Amino acid sequence: MAEGFAERPSTAMHYFSQDFKWEDLRDEVQSRPKGSDDVLGNLPVVSLDHNVEAWKKFHHLHAKHAFFKERRYLVKEFPDLLASDRVLNILEVGCGTGSSVLPILRANKAAVVYACDCSESVLRRAHSLVQTTISSDGNCRFVPFLCDISIQRLPSWLCCSSCMDLEGIIHEDSISSENGERLHCINGIDIITMIFTLSSIPPHQMQHVIEECFSVLKPGGLVLFRDYGLYDMTMQRFSATQRVGEQLYQRGDGTLTFFFTPESLSNLFVQAGFVEEENYFCCVEVRNRRRELPMKRVWIHAKFIKPQSPS
Known about the structure:
By secondary structure, the protein is an alpha/beta fold. It has helices spanning about 20-30, 50-60, 75, 100-105, 120-135, 135-140, 160-165, 205-215, 235, 260-270, and strands spanning about 90-95, 110-115, 140-145, 175, 180-185, 190-195, 215-230, 245, 250, 255-260, 275-290, 295-305. The protein has one domain: 3-Layer(aba) Sandwich (Rossmann fold). Helix content is about 30%, strand content about 25%. This is tRNA N(3)-methylcytidine methyltransferase.
């Protein structure tokens, strides 16, 4: 394992209560009567490549507002983010307005967070939030850069030297960050966080995204993953006409949402070379305070590690 991960913090399983069994929810959903428009073959064809532009428009509309609440639960769910015996290079893939970045910078003074997104406006918003909510050193520990990881490669300055030599990656001496600064090789990423990001990417582009993550991690580095699980309340609220693929739905604004199972997620990461450490459904029942209605949420919690040596 990479330096600093020889003794990992204890698992965060205790942080989540399994309020219900996923299998019971599956049986309940599958027993409901299906309409004729539930058949995929009867649905209209949509352009999945339109997804990036749809997300850019989404972020442009919401960049001036704290649309997503700060995800303070992350440092409890993933104690690896709190390792502070050395500088920790973290990459947030699809950072949005910084809702995952802020709690990491606040909780771990030894963390440097590199963050990419496909939207310039949302990166500016994230940078502004870090400047205004984190102490002065936080601004130095946050490096946003523009990258549409669904179709582009991550910059080679993120890779560790051994991986660059192994894969024959051409080293770039420097590259410009979102705020115009020149960046130099940081010798690899210790941890990648993917928080409700992969579900927004068309399925045929997911393998590329995960392979890019693999390429910049140090041997022994981690991907910490949280995203929508199959039969989550969000999925059940979509109409049948919004279903555009297996486990794939399209919102009215054109953005996509995919709903994972542990098996489908594991297949993607293992095919890219990762080893699975944790991968399971989190089934949590929350209550709508205004309407006093229970809501069954299903998320995927997962951790994958890059092996020390290629298999």
